[in-house]
Specification:
It comes from Mytilus galloprovincialis (Mediterranean mussel). This is Reverse transcriptase domain-containing protein. The chain is built from six helices and no strands. It has 118 residues and is mainly alpha-helical. The chain folds into two domains: 47 residues, no CATH class; 70 residues, no CATH class.
């Protein structure tokens, strides 16, 4: 049940129609051949994130409960630039290697029943 809910929530159907069109166009213009790792690694989809992208994402994030690390989006938003640089290096290392730190693989999921729902 939870898996289905999360799969539905992360579906492309939830994307803004303009973004979905842009995504499809970009995917068609930049096909990825999974058998060619070199081409895959050069793809526009796989380049490291830059600081402007990180700041743009942080602006869109609302206050949420922190994870096990106790770090909130608000903390990210108020970090000094030197710390943002360090976090960006870490994020890009994870992105490039495809290896998440073990502690990042844990989540606390607390299902909350909405009023008048069963």
């Amino acid at each position: 049940m939870l898996a289905g809910t999360f799969a539905e929530a992360s579906s492309d159907n939830n994307l803004d129609p303009k973004f979905r069109t842009h995504k499809l166009k970009t995917e068609i213009e930049n096909p990825i051949n999974r058998d060619d790792d070199e081409q895959h690694n050069r793809s526009k989809f796989n380049i490291p994130f830059n600081k402007n992208e990180l700041y743009k994402v942080l602006k869109t994030k609302k206050t949420t409960a922190p994870g096990d690390d106790r770090i909130t989006y608000e903390m990210f938003k108020h970090m000094p630039e030197s710390m943002i640089d360090i976090m960006l290096q870490l994020i890009n290392k994870v992105w490039v290697t495809g290896q998440l730190p073990h502690s990042w693989k844990h989540a606390n999921v607390i299902p909350i029943l909405k009023p008048n729902k069963k």
